[in-house]
Amino acid sequence: MNIILFLCLITAALSALFALVRQYQMLQQNSYFPSRYAAWVKESYSLPLCAECIAFCASSLLFGQELYAVQLAFLAAVLAVRTVSAVRTQKKSVKKLVFTGRIKRLFAAAVILLAVFTAVYAVFPETLAGEIFTVIVFMLSFISPLLTLLCRLLTAPAEKAIASWYVNDAKRILKEHKNLTVIGVTGSYGKTSVKFILQRLLSEKYNVVATPHSFNTPMGVVRTIRENLKPQTQIFICEMGAKNIGDIKEICDIVHPKYGIITSVGPQHLETFGSVDNVYKTKFELADEVIKNGGEVFVSGDSAELIKRTDPSLYRVYGTDKSFEFRARDISYSKNGSEFTAVLGKEEIRLSSKLLGLHSIINITGAAALAFTLGTEPEDIKFAAAALKPTEHRLELKPYINGSTLIDDAYNANPEGCIEAVRVLASFDGMKKVIVTPGLIELGSKEYECNFALGAEAAEKCDIIILVGKNRSKPIREGAESKGFPQENLFTVSSFREAMQIYTPMADSGTVVLFENDLPDNYLN
Q1: Angle at the Cα of 283 (from 323 to 314), degrees rounded to 5?
Q2: Nearest residue to 440 (alpha-carbon basis) of 421, 459, 425
Q3: 147 and 182 fall within a common domain
Q4: How many Å apart are CA 358 and CA 340, to the nearest integer?
Q5: Checking phi first, is residue 315 left (phi over 0); if not, alpha (psi -120 to 50) or beta?
Q6: Average pLDDT score over residue span 301-311
Q7: How many structural domains compose the chain?
Q8: Looking at residue 96, what DSSP letter applies?
Q9: CB 337 within 8 A of CB 352
Q10: pLDDT class for 49, splitting at 50, 70, 90?
Q11: Which CATH number does the domain housing residue 491 bear?
Q12: Could you tell me if residue 164 is inside a domain?
C-alpha cells in the first residue's frame, strides 16, 4: 500500500465532508426532495469542477506515484479551502444548516461510505478493485452533489421507518386526549398569522397548544404533538402547509380536525402544484376532513381565488363584505395599528390592534369568528385583540439603524401580501420610504407577472428601491422602470449585506424601510 496515496484518500474524504455542509444545507432548504435539490445543483454547481475531478482521477491512474505527493498537497489545499468555506457559509447564510437528527444521519452515512471505500484500497492496494475505489473516493470528493444524493438514497429506508414510528406515536398521544378539540388552519398565505391570533384569542378561555413558528409539515405537526401536548390541553391548533396535492390530507389523517380555517387560495408553489385549481383542491382537503368529522369550516370571503371556486353556503364566511356572517367594518388605520368593528353574527364589538394592514384585520376577524363560535366572550376577544403582537418577521415594526424604522415582513412570500405591505409602507406620511426585497418565488408561469406588479407598486409608493439578486429581481426592476422610477434611486445587489451597505448611509429618524421576503440561499442569484 502506498502511504502517500492512502493519505490522499483520507484528505479527499475529509474535504468531501466539509463540502457537504453547503450541499446538505441546500438539500434541507429544498425539503430533502432530490428533484428540487437537483434543480439547485443544475443552476449553481460548477461544471469546471467536474472537469477538474476527471483530470485529477485520470492523472492518478496514468502517472501513478510520480504525482502522489503533488496530489496530496493539492488535496490538503482543497481541504483548507472547504473548511474555511463551510464556516463562512454558516455565518453569512440567510438560513443556516440546522443539524437535525436527519442531517446527522446523512453525515454519518457519508463517513461510513467514504471510510468503506478507503478501506477497500487499504486492504486491496494493488488490485483493480483498489484502483476503482480510489477513483470513486476522489470522484465523490470533487462531485459532492453526487455524494449528497447517494447518502440521501442510502438513508431513505431508515428515515421512512423513523418517520412512521413518530407518526404512530403522535396518533397514540392524540387518542389519549379524548376531549381534545383540533383546529386545522391552512391557506396559500395568512395561515401562520391566523394560527397565532387564534391561539391568543382562545387562550382567554382554554388551555391551547399551537404548532410553533412555521411548523406546518407532517413531521413538524408530529413533533409538536409529542413534545408540547399535555394532559390539560383542551385545544390543539394545527397549521397545515402544502406543496403538492395530498399534503393536507396527510396531516388530516394524523390529527383529524373538528374545525378548520382556510385563509386564502392563490398562486403559491405553482412549480409543484401546476395550477391554482390544484392549490384549491389541496387546501380544501382540510374542509373535506372537517365536514366528515361533523365540524365547521371558516373561509375567507376576501380571497378572490378561493371564493370564486367555493359555494359559500357550505361554509361560514368571514371578511369585509357586508353580506358575510362575520365581517369587519368601519376600519381606520394609523402607524400604531388598526381599529375596526367586528360583526360576529348578532354581536358587534369595537376592536383595536397593533397589527398593520387590511389583511391583518381580515385575519383577526376570521380568528374572532371561530373563537366566538367556541364560546369565547366578546370582551375577552376585545382584550386579546388589543394585546396581539405582530408575528415575528410579518409586518413587525422595529427600531433600526441610525434611528430609522424597520417594517420586518421577511416571512411574507405571497403576491397579495407583498402589495399590501408596500401600501402599509406608504402610510408612513412624511418619511423617506425604502424597500429591500428579492421578490417572489415558486409562482410558476405567474412569477414574472407578480414580481413586475410588485415593482410597479413599489415605484409608486417608495423613494428608494433596493433589489437583492441580480437575475431573479429583473422583473421587479422592469416593473419599477415601467412607472418611470428614477434610476439613481433603484439599486440591484447580490446579497442583503450589500443592501445594508447602501441603506445605512441614508438611514435616519425620518426613514422607514420595508424588508419584503427574505429568501433562503438556494434562491438568491
Answers
A1: 40
A2: 421
A3: no
A4: 10
A5: beta
A6: 90
A7: 3
A8: P
A9: yes
A10: low
A11: 3.90.190.20
A12: no
More confident residue, 452 or 8: 452
Q: Which one, of 498, 446, 449, 444, lies nearest residue 470 by Cα?
A: 498
Integer Cα distance of 50 and 61 in angstroms = 17
Determine the Cα–Cα distance for residues 275 and 154; give it in Å rounded to an integer: 33
pLDDT digits (tens, 9 = 90+) for 334-366: 767 789 999 998 899 999 998 888 889 999 999
Distance from C-alpha of 496 to C-alpha of 502, rounded to nearest angstrom: 10
Q: Which three cell numbers mark 11?
A: 484528505
Count CA within 13 A, CB hemisphere, residue 362. 24
* CA–CA gap between residue 237 and residue 225 (Å, rounded): 10
Task: Name the pLDDT band for 508 (thresholds 50, 70, 90).
Answer: very high
Q: Please choose, from the candidates 309, 512, 495, 482, the residue with its C-alpha nearest in 3D space to the C-alpha of residue 401.
A: 512
CB 181 within 8 A of CB 350: no
Angle at which helix 218-228 crosses helix 144-176, to 10 degrees, equals: 50
User: Helices 144-176 and 128-142, interaxial angle, to 10°?
Assistant: 70
Q: What confidence tens digit (pLDDT) does each residue in 404-452 have?
A: 999 988 877 778 788 888 988 988 888 999 999 988 876 777 788 889 9
C-alpha cell at 242: 402544502
Write down the pLDDT at residue 389: 86
Cα–Cα distances in angstroms (integers) from residue 230 to residues 176, 199, 236, 479, in the given order:
10, 16, 10, 51
Q: How confident is the model at residue 33 (pLDDT cuts 50, 70, 90)?
A: confident
The CATH number linked to 316 is 3.40.1190.10
